[in-house]
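for the record, two folds in this file. i put them one after another cuz i was lazy. first one right below, seq on top, structure tokens after. the second one comes after a little note so u can tell where it starts
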Amino acid sequence: MKRPLPDRYLTPIDLADLLGVPIETVYQWRRKDTGPRGFRVGRHLRYDPEDVQAWVASLMEEAA
């Protein structure tokens, strides 16, 4: 990931924008348990930027 990660937890919209994918893709990853680890704050879904970075790194390792 070339862009610096924000210092706050990411919303699904933030994650979709960061990775350049449709928002529905983020929700599909969540349903299929294939995307980065997310957590709920009440009814709101959030992602830790460090978890997202680790998930992307694991995808890159698998591809290599």
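(here's the note) second protein begins now
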Amino acid sequence: MPDWLIATGLIGAVLFGLLSAFFPPLNAEIYALAAPVIFPDAWVLHVCAMTGGLVIGKMSHFVIADKGAVAYSRRREAKEAREAAEPRRAAGPIREQLTRWSKAMIDVLDRPRLGPLVMLASSGVGFPPLAVVTVAAGIKRVNMALFFVVTSIGCLARFLVTAWLVTRGMSLGH
């Protein structure tokens, strides 16, 4: 494969990762599944480039959430004050459970041991959703370097394993 094609493919991989961070239907797993088929000799490099783009995009979400944490806190306090003044209506057991779970997840993110585990699970297996964890980590003002490293490791591992499984499947077919 010509070098120029590999280079343009790497730029496309980074752009795909960036776009997938902002446009969820453009799923990064799709790229990880396709890379071994499209770039059989350079799929690892392409998956790494796409992951880099994705993590850069997620970092922008993190920074925006971090900067918006003060505004979020003010709005939250005002909302809680309004809700305390209004009569309480039943939200339903599922919604209440999701609210409790979300709050518990956000509370754990800034803990030294559990926070990185939540971030690793989110980036490595996709649960809890990385988009939610990214914003919550920014709001909780989690250490940016820690978030970057853990998220990069988790996403890279997930996408490399996904692509590697495709290569195994392709080798079985031959």
